[in-house]
């Protein structure tokens, strides 16, 4: 019988069609609701491939029961929803979707920065609610973006793409990262700093770092205290990089001026969460990579990776490089 694939969300028909030509395909066919964990587990026990999203938790207990599983294709660049070490120990390939979403995610990060600084959502709401009474000198006066200092935490591909965009606004670019980035320093004029110095000097602190044991809660009370009281914090990476209680306190006490947040500790965040009611918070529903073109490319890449692995070929993108070296040692890939 054909190898089988379980897809945890509704995808565009072309993608499903391509997979169906080669494999037995089952789908949790919902646009709105994530697959219930017990159904995901039942499928994981049977299938050769899982096509998942960041709302699906692929932990070691699920993987321990996934007897036939060969590949997990995650429709995201981040993969903190997957226990990669457990997948490794079972010889399961983990694939993500880097590169195809870089510019789209950087565009949105810059849009969120600009919208937060210039109060775009408040302005739109003012008009929509019929509250625009007259032109007035300080009506919705925000913060300038041009010629300010941008601080990027996590200078990967997306961080560099954000830095590129800021050049048009003649911003000064600071960055902090595990490794120095010679390209960004030489070609974008980005200046490396310690985390602390970046926080103290930046007008915009933009978080782009992946969620790992090292970065969890790195934006804590002390970090927000270090920032300028005029600083704006932007997060399009993962919510758990931030201590949300500390962020709330910093915003209420005026330790920072505002925040643009696309990601949260618990998603979806409740509309009555204390952060959401603050006038100086602009919150969006984890949509930074969501352009039609890019979401289709991400689906395609997941589908391609699954096809390749189930037919004994190298995937286009792979998180656990260990998987490849083991397969190459046994001469099992073309
Ligand atoms: C989305 O959050 C992603 O990691 O691609
Ligand atoms: C955080 O700064 C990182 O290491 O990317």
From TrEMBL:
PROSITE patterns: D_2_HYDROXYACID_DH_3 (PS00671). One of its GO terms (molecular function) is NAD binding. One of its GO terms (cellular component) is cytosol. CDD domains: GDH (cd05301). This is D-glycerate dehydrogenase. Coiled coil: none annotated. It comes from Peribacillus psychrosaccharolyticus (Bacillus psychrosaccharolyticus). Residues 5-320 form the D-isomer specific 2-hydroxyacid dehydrogenase catalytic domain. Pfam families: 2-Hacid_dh, 2-Hacid_dh_C. It comes from the Bacteria. The lineage of its organism: Bacteria, Bacillati, Bacillota, Bacilli, Bacillales. Belongs to the D-isomer specific 2-hydroxyacid dehydrogenase family. Residues 110-288 form the D-isomer specific 2-hydroxyacid dehydrogenase NAD-binding domain. Keywords: Oxidoreductase.
């Amino acid at each position: 019988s054909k190898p089988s694939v379980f897809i945890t969300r509704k995808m565009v028909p072309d993608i499903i069609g391509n997979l169906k030509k080669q494999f037995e395909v089952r789908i949790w066919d919902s646009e709105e609701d994530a697959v219930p964990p017990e159904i995901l587990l039942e499928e994981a026990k049977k299938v050769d491939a899982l096509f998942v999203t960041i709302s699906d938790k692929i932990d070691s207990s699920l993987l321990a029961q996934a007897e036939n599983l060969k590949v997990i294709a995650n429709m995201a660049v981040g993969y903190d929803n997957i226990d990669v070490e457990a997948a490794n120990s079972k010889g399961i390939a983990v694939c993500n979707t880097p590169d195809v979403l870089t510019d789209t995610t950087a565009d949105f990060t810059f849009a969120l920065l600009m919208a937060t600084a210039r109060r775009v959502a408040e302005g739109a709401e003012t008009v929509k609610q019929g509250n625009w009474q007259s032109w007035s000198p300080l009506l919705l006066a925000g913060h300038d973006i041009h010629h300010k200092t941008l601080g990027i935490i996590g200078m990967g591909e997306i961080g560099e793409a954000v830095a590129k965009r800021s050049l048009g606004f003649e911003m000064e670019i600071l960055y902090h990262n595990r490794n120095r980035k010679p390209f960004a320093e030489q070609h974008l004029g980005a200046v490396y700093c310690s985390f602390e110095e970046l926080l103290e000097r930046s007008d915009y602190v933009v978080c782009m770092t992946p969620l790992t044991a090292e970065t969890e809660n790195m934006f804590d009370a002390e970090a927000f205290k270090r920032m300028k009281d005029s600083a704006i914090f932007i997060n399009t990476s993962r919510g758990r990089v931030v201590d949300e209680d500390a962020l709330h306190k910093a915003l209420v006490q005026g330790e920072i001026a505002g925040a643009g947040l696309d990601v949260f500790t618990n998603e979806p965040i409740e509309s009555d969460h204390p952060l959401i009611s603050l006038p100086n918070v602009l919150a969006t529903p984890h949509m930074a990579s969501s352009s039609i073109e890019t979401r289709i490319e991400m689906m395609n890449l997941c589908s391609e990776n699954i096809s390749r692995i189930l037919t004994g070929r190298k995937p286009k993108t792979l998180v656990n490089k260990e998987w490849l070296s083991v397969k190459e040692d046994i001469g099992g890939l073309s």
